[in-house]
Amino acid sequence: MSSAAEQQAVPEHAPGRTAPPVWPGTPTPLGARCRTGPDGTRGTNFALWAGGAEAVELCLFAPDGTETRLPLTELTHEIWHGFVPGVGPGQRYGYRVHGRWDPWTGARWNPAKLLLDPYARAVDGEFALPPEVYGHVRDWPQQHVADTVRDERDSAPHVPKGVVVRDDDDWSDDRRPKTPWQDSVIYEAHVKGFTARHPGIPEHLRGTYAGLAHPAAVDHLVRLGVTAVELLPVHQFAHEDHLLRRGLTNYWGYNSIGYFAPHAGYSSSGTTGQQVGEFKRMVRALHAAGIEVILDVVYNHTAEAGELGPTLSLKGIDNRGYYRLQSDARRYADYTGCGNTLHVVQPQVLRLITDSLRYWVTEMGVDGFRFDLAAALARSMHDVDMLSPFLAVIAQDPVLRRVKLIAEPWDVGNGGYQVGSFPPLWTEWNDRYRDAVRDFWRGALPDVRDLGYRLSGSSDLYAWGGRRPYASVNFVTAHDGFTLRDLVTYERKHNEANGEGNRDGTHDNRSWNCGAEGETDDPEIGALRLRQLRNLLTTLLLSTGVPMLVAGDEMGRTQGGNNNAYCQDNETSWLDWTLPEDPGRAQLLALTRRLLALRHRHPVLRRRAFFSGRPQGADGLRDLAWFGPDGTEMTEGDWYAPSATLALYLSGRDIPGRDERGEQVLDDSFLAVLHAGPDPLDFRLPGPPWAQTYARVLDTALDDQTAPPDTLHPGGSVLEVAARSVVLLRVAE
After folding, report:
1. Are 26 and 45 in contact (CB under 8 A)?
2. Residue among 626, 624, 596, 598 at smallest CA distance from 611
3. Based on C-alpha coordinates, what's the Rg of the chain?
4. Torsion sign (Cα): 237, 241, 242, 244
5. Which end of the chain has fewer beta carbons closer than 10 Å to its terminal beta carbon, N or C?
6. Consecutive 10-residue runs of the chain (733 residues): their mean pLDDT?
7. For residue 577, what pLDDT is reported?
8. Element (H or E) spanning 459, and its range?
9. Which pLDDT does position 706 carry in this prediction?
10. Is residue 144 helix, strand or coil?
11. Is 710 among the catalytic positions?
């Protein structure tokens, strides 16, 4: 659908004077869908699951805000439905749901509150949080019982509305990249933060889906060499009251309220349905460049918070049916730290989530999902259960089992840490990789056992049930925490701008400031920090598994030491595209591109199977071997001894699997020497059968990484490795 057509989408019926008829319609699909009714009449079918409700009113809103209430009298399997002739794309709507007010049993129906359709595919308007949008009397003098007193004020003037959306999109010209997991490189980015300051994007498109689709944005991703963007939440979200009172907003967006609607704040073309088409065009533009789109999704909780939170949607439709409640049903079970937890064991909640996921794949074109606090979704009644209904449904779904599925494998409840436990089909954010790499380069690892596992694909976590090395999404930084630059610049968080007395954000940064807290003019510290950045990036991109970069780390982006910038919708979080004007940052960007190109060229760096570590031929050569500084293979005792050096040999002749033509995969062999010690190291290069001669490919001790050093080193010779550096060598013969 063209942008012009979207902008012309207006209600075919203007309510407010004569109420249109409501025909029975159908209970499926849920949500609002334009249809042809009896006798060829065009209109919209509305369907809402509201178990336990006594009555449901569909509320249509004219452009001037006039409301028309239409009772839905048809009820099929707890779904209230009706077909309204003459209503078409652009129509704004909501629901009022009638029922008991009995918070002591979890019943919180309040028809004074206009509710957003959980299946709304577009949302028009901003979520403010005045007292009228709360189902209870928020300013009740006795706050400990305030949630039990029903508020009778009308919330309709203060809440956004759902929008009826066209269904005539054609994806025949779209070609999904379908990048294999082992070839994937993920780039975590924020739609607004990535584009808000980009000088090559027209100003009116910055901060929007159209901005991310602009050639200037796409060109950076292509030249960098990533294969997928993982977008911070783009489901419609709301801002928390405590942020609004401080003049801040939820920038990251982990506060969803509309699981089918692209967040309207990122639309440049309008919010009465235009945001849907703009999002689709963004996906097409990225696909055309060979880049997949992965969404960070928040199905574990909603923006309605706990018993003292607002009534925006699910809480007023069927509080007991959608949320996990405690034995005292006034209170919410909170495994997320956000006030509530969706009750995924309930069939209607599971349907909501899986319908949403399928919609984003089949109708919006996305290629995968990263599930925030995925352990909360895997809970059965209380405990995390890898045979839970959610995981079982995903495993057998013909659409969802074919897309990329990434778990954040923890939540904040008891037993919530589940790294390495998710079943096949799933990959996981591997925070043990993050911690080991950070600790090694800051000199805090007691030995190198853990680092060895992390560099080689984390077989101790994932070599079961048919899982592969790409089950590990390797990362050193993520949106949550220090940027890569701040990791080598700050040892303490500096979150004062968040207005929470610097209490928010983790204390466990595992960072090292290289000798001074914060920015400094000391040239030695500056040079060391750049070297540490090169070390961290090189380690990440040479490791077996799926690497994830955070937008801006390739240019040394800083947040001024803020390790929880979730509420900083400003230059703290937005990418500074002038950074490459600094020679050191430009060299860092060039190194990242070169490393990704190297990874793309060499399948030995993108293995589909774990290493065996056993001799593969008569010469005793192993597919993976570990060496100490003396050039001999490490013994069992070496793994338990303190060390600041680890070298690994990757054999290119022993790559399991075959290419698309059934031929054996052969590649160069490499030796990587990682040295985190403060002094230079004499490292003896392993001789035959490992290599006669090595060619130095990369050395992070050098500032300029635009071209490989033209040096050859005989096997058995001594190579001087600079303090705190990585040297990568290719077996020349």
Report:
1. yes
2. 624
3. 28
4. positive
5. C
6. 40 57 97 93 97 97 96 97 97 98 98 98 94 96 95 97 89 90 98 98 98 98 98 97 95 98 98 97 98 98 97 98 96 95 96 98 97 94 88 96 97 92 96 98 95 97 95 98 98 97 96 97 97 98 98 98 98 98 95 97 95 80 94 95 96 82 88 98 96 96 72 94 97 91
7. 98
8. helix 459-462
9. 61
10. helix
11. no
Burial 48-85 (b: 16+ CB within 10 A, else e): bbbbbbebbbbbbbbeeeebbebebebeeeebbbbbbb
Of these residues, 67, 124, 230, 372, which one is catalytic? 372
- Cα–Cα distance, 241 to 591 (Å, whole number): 43
Identify which of 372, 367, 366, 229 has the alpha carbon closest to the alpha carbon of residue 296. Answer: 372
Find residue 390's DSSP bridge partners: none
The pLDDT, as a whole number, for residue 649 is 97
Going edge to edge, which strands form the sheet with 42-49?
Answer: 31-36, 42-49, 79-85, 74-76
pLDDT for residue 17? 56
341: which DSSP letter?
A: -
Q: Is 675 helix (H, G, I), strand (E, B) or coil?
A: strand
Q: Could you identify the residue written with the tokens 């054996």?
A: 664
E strands along 6-61, which residues?
31-36, 42-49, 55-61
* Apex 466 CA angle, 464 and 469, nearest 5: 80
Structure tokens at 525: 């510290």
Query: What is the rounded distance in angstroms from the CA atom of residue 116 to the CA atom of residue 163?
Result: 10
Identify the active-site residue in 408, 491, 553, 623.
408
DSSP state of 156: G
Type of residue found at 243: L
Task: Give the number of other CB atoms < 10 A from CB of residue 137.
Answer: 17
Residues 6 or more apart whose Cβ sits within 8 Å of residue 100: 54, 107, 109
Decide: 92 and 161 in contact? Cβ < 8 Å.
yes
8 A C-beta contact, residue 261 and residue 356? no
Rounded Cα distance, 435 and 444, in Å:
10
Cβ of 536: how many Cβ atoms within 10 Å? 22
Say which residues have a Cβ less than 8 Å from residue 516's Cβ, sequence separation at least 6: 522, 525
What is the C-alpha to C-alpha distance for residues 164 and 184, in angstroms, rounded to an integer? Answer: 36
In this structure, the strands spanning 712-714 and 693-699 are antiparallel
Non-local (6+) Cβ contacts of 98 within 8 A are 53, 54, 55, 56, 57, 109, 111
* Residue 618 CB contacts under 8 Å (≥ 6 apart), including other chains: none
DSSP run (H or E) holding 140: none
* H or E element that contains 378: none
Amino acid at 594: R
pTM of the predicted model as reported, rounded to 2 decimal places: 0.95
Residue 222 is encoded by which pair of tokens?
């292509």
Write the DSSP string, 159-221: S-EEE--------TT-------GGG--EEEE-HHHHHTT-TTS-GGGTTSHHHHHSHHHHHHH
Q: Tens digits of per-residue pLDDT, 58-110?
A: 999 999 999 999 999 999 999 999 999 999 999 999 999 999 999 999 999 99
Predicted local confidence at residue 733, as pLDDT: 83
Burial (0-12, 13-18, 19+ Cβ within 10 Å), 465: exposed
What tokens were used for 727?
A: 């040297």
User: What three-state secondary structure class fits 101?
Assistant: strand
- In three-state secondary structure terms, 108 is strand
581 given a catalytic annotation: no
